[in-house]
Design goal:
It holds the Pfam family Aminotran_1_2. The chain is α/β, with parallel strands linked by helices. It contains seven helices and four strands. The model has no long low-confidence stretch (mean pLDDT about 80).
Length: about 170
């Protein structure tokens, strides 16, 4: 991937892979969000611990029109917690999960922590790091609980490719 970069070009290269949004000013949140957070802190009403599934007002703010969705929805505090929640739901004896190679190490660590077998499938660099659909299909069996389709290489899959992966997942 780095071979595609023009290090002498007019635009600076911004590293996005280290996961620390505070390292660059381009990741600043909008002033309205800063003001809302400040107002909540100054109110003193929510200065304790919320439930692990977050507070109902928080969930209603995401989907305010459907109370039943707000009651069943979980809002995570970042992708790492979301992955942990998903892995804890899927983790069961004998289950396996398919993850891409290259991929995010935390996904594999969370799966192993929840006693899942991890099966790695290749991404195809010659095709823009697309999922090797045939390899995924070959790795899938009756104990496969999830196929992780992540974006470890900065790629954006086409609608057609995602559709192909989705059809294969449903049929497998």
């Amino acid at each position: 991937m780095h071979a595609c970069l023009d290090e002498d070009g007019p635009r600076p290269i911004i590293p996005l892979s280290h996961g620390d949004p505070s390292s660059s000013a381009i990741f600043r949140i909008v002033p309205e969000a800063e003001e809302a957070i400040t107002a909540v802190i100054h109110s003193g009403e929510d200065n304790g611990y919320t439930s692990p599934a977050t507070s109902l007002p928080t969930r209603r703010s995401v989907l305010p029109t459907d109370d039943w969705i707000a009651l069943t929805e979980v809002v995570s505090s970042g992708c790492t917690q979301a992955i942990e929640i998903v892995m804890s739901v899927f983790g069961q004896p004998g289950a396996n999960i398919l993850l891409p190679k290259p991929g995010y190490p935390k996904h594999e660590a969370h799966a192993l922590f929840h006693k899942m077998e991890v099966r790695l499938y290749n991404l195809v660099p010659e095709r823009g790091w697309e999922v090797d659909v045939e390899a995924v299909e070959a790795l899938t069996d009756e104990n496969t609980v999830a196929i992780g389709i992540t974006n470890p290489c900065g790629n954006v899959y086409t609608y057609e490719h995602l559709s192909k992966v989705g059809v294969m997942a449903v049929q497998s």
